[in-house]
Amino acid sequence: MNNFKYVVFAFSFLAFAPAQASLIAFTDQTSWSTASGSISGTENFNAFSTDSSFETTAVAANNMLITGSPSPYNAGITNKIDAAAYAYNGYYNIDGTSYLLADLVETQTLRIDFQNTVSAWGASFAGISDETIYRHTTISVFDSNDILLGILDTSSLTNSDRSFYGFNFDSNELASYMIFQNIAPGRYNDVFGIDNISYVTSASVPEPSSIALLLAGLFGLTAFRNKKV
Hints:
Blueprint: H1 2-16, E1 23-26, H2 29-36, E2 41-43, E3 52-53, E4 59-61, E5 64-67, E6 80-82, E7 99-104, E8 109-118, E9 120-126, E10 137-142, E11 148-153, E12 162-169, E13 175-182, E14 190-200, H3 210-228
Antiparallel strand pairs: 1-12, 2-14, 3-6, 4-5, 5-8, 6-7, 7-14, 8-13, 9-12, 9-14, 10-11, 10-13
Helix pairs in contact: 1-3
């Protein structure tokens, strides 16, 4: 009877204990797609036929609100949805179409808020964190309570590198917004492109098998106690 009480107590605790989320980072799009489940939506910025700056005014895209600030070096040129004719002759353009052109230095940030929270997000990047000692942009992911869920680290050997970065979670956590920031000290600004975004707006990653592990432990405890008696 006492053993049964232990089991009931353990399940009561588990039922009310919050799941501890852990952000899982991806640098391979195929692996991210396989792990994240059915895609809820995409944004390739092709609907933008003219430049749309988010230096002082937020720009709305599919399930996203994008905000930034003027670059101290390239104000009016960067921190915008870049449509033809492209800035820098399209150097940071990923597939020859409109894309997000960011430019960050020290305290500057790029923020993306999700209209509907996401359990997974991924995108193609051009030239992010090139020569990481001088330019080092991180992507911090937060929930709706402003709790940091995890950080994506980025790097590129040169500003011509193309890469993929994405995330999901190992529990049913949901991201409300992301903040991009160049944390490298000094005056070097990080200019980079973002395009071909995909996201999942419902948690599709199953909870860890905590119940199975707990039951195994309780079974062992019960067997041990019975053996002692």
